[in-house]
Amino acid sequence: MRIRFRYAKLGKVRFTSQRDVARMWERALRRAALPVAYSAGFSPRPLLSFGLALPTGAESLAEFVDIVLDEGRVEPDEVVPHALVGRLAPFLPDGVTVRAAALVDGGSLQHEVTACGWELLVDGARCAAVAEAVASLLAASSVPLVRERKGRQAEDDLRPAIRELSLVGGAEDERVVVVAEVATQPRGVRPAELVRALAEQTVDVAGLALAGACRTAQWIERDGQRWEPLDDEGRTAGSVSAGAARERAS
Amino acid sequence: MESLWPRIEPLLAQVSKPARYIGGELGARDPRHRPGQVAWLLVYPDTYEVGLPNQGLQILYELLNERDDAAAERAYAPWTDMEAAMRAAGVPLFSLEHHEPAASFDVLAFNLSAELVATNVLNLVDLAGLPVRSAERDGSHPLVVAGGHCAFNPEPLADFVDCFVLGDGEEVVGELNDVLVAHRARGGPDGGPSEDRASLLRALAQVPGVYVPSCYEAVFGPQPTDGSPAPLVGVVPRYPETPERVEKRTIADLGAWPYPREQLVPLIEVVHDRLNVEVFRGCTRGCRFCQAGMITRPVRERPAEQVRTMVSAGLARTGYDEVALTSLSSADYSGIGETVQGIIDDPACSGQVSVSLPSLRVDAFTVATAAQIQRVRRTGLTFAPEGGTWRMRQVINKLILEEDLYAAVDAAFSQGWRRVKLYFLIGLPTETDEDTLGIVRLASRCVDIGRRYHRSVTVTASVGGFVPKAHTPFQWFGQNTVEELTRKVHLLKDAARGVRGLSVRWHDPAASAAEGVVSRGDRRIGAVIEHVWRQGGTFQEWSEHFDLSLWTEALAASGLSLEDTVYRHRGEDEVLPWDHLSAGLHRDFLWQEWQDALEAHGLPDCRWTPCYDCGACTGFGVEHVVASAVPPAGGSQGTGQDLSIGGEVPVRFVTGLPTGAGG
Predict the structure, then answer these.
(1) Which of A77, B219, B366, B381 is within CB 3.0–4.6 Å of B233 for a Cys-Cys bond?
(2) Is A57 at the interface with chain B, CB within 8 A?
(3) How far is B279 from B147, CA to CA, in rounded Å?
(4) Architecture of A2-105 per CATH?
């Protein structure tokens, strides 16, 4: 039995890593005495999967975790997902807030999520200059970026992963919010990489720096439609497209 | 006070592991600072990951915050990247709870767990914005206090720390707070902040267990004609009311102090990241190299029922899936088997909790206990024979027979472990190359035993250079030189080459030399520590930052050398820099132990045998407190020692609820 939780990560706690967050959840589940299933084998681990990692320092309104419960030990009220939201809330640290929960079947977050949305607070350049850089990046057929991968330098093209890019802010503002939607497969684009790519567009934005990042959405896309893995009302891709899921299963 | 958070937050994007600086742990307090209260900043002079689990700091944090007239917050040493960012932005050392500047507290209290953190103490006092030398601070600055094991030779830090606390802190921390409250209520004398500080220090020096260096003068004799440094004649009181000797503090009954009640659970991974429950304090095995075992006597066990309660309540509260029963030798806890079984059988633990016993005793019984508790994750087991030959182990009084070690290792491999780690010391008194090479002989034999059960096994011999410590029988011993320790490491490496499955790891001999400088140094080492710090020598506990040349240059600048501070044997009549401080142990007892060591005479554990009158019990009117009348199976140290020779054993059994002070 798999339960998906949607949660936000805001404030000081954003400085913890994805690994730290996983450990916070493991401890919270034990404190709430939820019967989480464990992996078999030499070193059993609780069955939690988070999907897309959130960079350390970034906030998010749309984080998800799938938790497998041990069906042999589940009490009837433990399958009422909205009750689980309240049950876990007191055991998570300040800033990690559970928004919704639902029973899910179907694919894992890791496989199904294909895109995510960001709001990036940038400074170091005027709004008008950033607008030019955004237009230049969108017009480019390729956006090469050198990345360190397993100790080696590798050049990747970011352009195919950038779906949408726009900005919010007055023309003379020193701090500007860039709104982005990026693909997460086969490789994602990190906020810092996006800002680096923007800063390379024109000399006017060479000093552009990331001052804050917040993930606003994650998307599952299928058959020309898209859903959040779980929205704030507790609806999942599965419940919206139950028909499609049944079709796949048959 | 004012929060520095808006100035700290922008720095965090540039530094490694930024969550070290945000606070917000489960169990963190939110103390309200009110007028009339004493505001304490408890500082661990190493990184957050190393310092957060420190139980001593957590105990004091709770005890102070339980008082109406005190409030305590915490700080840890920022890593070098964060320190650079802070200094560049003009941000001083801050507390984690409210991100308030360190200088706005009344007391900065440091935990001294290791010698080489000394330079970090200076760095943190400086980062707080205070003059590093006590003499340059006055009543307008926070009081700088230090405690912990290294406070038992405080002389190297005497110029920087206003007062030291010796021994258990549970009671004395409140007494210090009382003095500070009373001092403030009385109002300072008319002479201004300087006289205000002087009168406070004289008042603090009256508290038992508190050593105020500025109330004592370190007197040196004339310099010898051979150019060696002037000998210490004594450290003597400057004022008539100041005690000649400062005795350590000892709490009689650990059961009366069930702390920490709410252990901190950090947001990030730290060392010893688990629930820790202290099952006893003190140790009477009498290993002659071990300072912790000497200065924390006598043994005071926590009642078994309280251990069970602290474990089950602690696991439920924290969500940890691992609990460590901590002490200097937890397998010696009487009734360890029942206690461990009780934790495992607790239905609340649902089979997913693992129990760890740091520092396993070397015998098969202990391995059986370990097998029982490590059902979940059976990775590696660690034993500490410390010496490579029986003769060597008699010298250091670690009375483990070779057969016991092999039986333990056999039990470990036969019950599924594949990795065994063995701790050894090199550079011990009277050590010969045969003793050193005995390490490889023992470890190779352990590999052979493992091969009977598994195709591939790993035995790691972890080797540390011995650093003599104050208040131990080896305090007179001249430490091996860097060259000699290095030679012995090579001896071991060569001998281990070609032994498949055996690996030798070693502690940097150069670091051992620097530890030796601080470990037995006198007040002149203060200038050395300051020199090393001014040359940028912080985080000397960390191999990537340690640099022996900083220390040798600093010694030379003070007219000192490793030769006379570290490598030199001390004589019976020599005044030692800590002779005016007492851990309860009679000097005669320590000297006799030193002589017995040189003749390779062992001495059994006094918990279950008659008293040797070391002084720890009789001097303080306390006694050993054990939770069960039955000694642990296997006998003390696994030697099969005859336990029937008891009789006049100064042991008090704890039954039921703790009764408060004993003795």
Answers:
(1) B219
(2) yes
(3) 21
(4) 2-Layer Sandwich (3.30)
